[in-house]
Specification:
alpha/beta; OB fold (Dihydrolipoamide Acetyltransferase, E2P); Rossmann fold; 3 domains
Length: 376
Amino acid sequence: MKVEAREVEGRKVYTVRAFNQGVATWLQRLPTLWVEGEVTELRRQQRWQSVFFTLKDPDDGACLSVQMPRGQFDALRLELKDGERVHVYGRPELYEQRGELRLKALSIERFGLGAHLAALERLKQKLADEGLFERKRPLPRFPRLIGLVTGNDAAAKRDVLTGIQQRFPPANVLVAETYVQGPRAPVSIATAIGDLCHRGCDVIVLARGGGSFEDLLPFSDERVVRAVATCSVPIISAVGHEQDTPLCDLAADVRASTPTAAARLVVPDLAELRAAVERTRERLHRGAFTLAGRHQGRLDTARERLHRAPLLALERRRARLDNAHARLAALSPLATLERGYAIVRRGDDVVLAADVESGDAISVRVSDGTFGATVD
């Protein structure tokens, strides 16, 4: 559309709409280009056809508005967040209604830290799908040999060794000093883990102090993560500070927030062990004393019962004899005679009235003796 000015008092005057149209037309002649900045003020609504955000220059704070069709933005699947650094490919345009300059985005790519974060997220998902983060083995209670993978003269090395020495002086530690940052670190770390496994370590501590995101990248390297996940013995990851989470933390059997915390996890406290042993000894002593007392009580009771047993048996037998005597006495014929009855015999036979005749001689037995008689 051709933009024309009006003649007013000898000068050319453009309306605001005409001016904005003219600038917009000239901007359309500019080529597409890449612009670098940090994402801020990301705005999107379900009913909006476009996604809006602001690109901010991290050095001087200069800002540029960016608009991108929502369909194109969603197709990129970037899941952008405020603060991420990106490269935006597009062309400048002017929003004529408000006279606002903005960049119409055609594509977006993460850059710098954002690119690393995206790559790490993809690697994390890949390794998770393979099940490398699922195995969690218990740590040995009393490790015979502890492996330590750390940097040369590193504070993390000192913290771990000091913590182990203070908690459990008899512990044996085999230190593998290696690169912990830089391009040579991933291979060195993975090799050190394998060497410690072959040398008979029962548990391995992977330790490094804090650092920048880039400093800790070797501990998210796929080679290191796989070495940790496939290690034949449990591994404690003590890399960075508590807020740092390299991928080796996810593959390790146990994560320690700091190298000092790793020392508390890998060995028990000797003073606490001694106190526990002393408490156990006291409980065993009290238990043995109590058990001996119970046995002594049972022995005393058994001895008393054995002492009383013959008397009780004699009393029982005497009672049985008395009962038998009473029953026999009750059944004895003499008891019947004492009640006034008599036994009449003729010779040796007991007779009845029908068995005798007048003049027969008989004998009569009463309770206090026997006398003769003649039947009348």
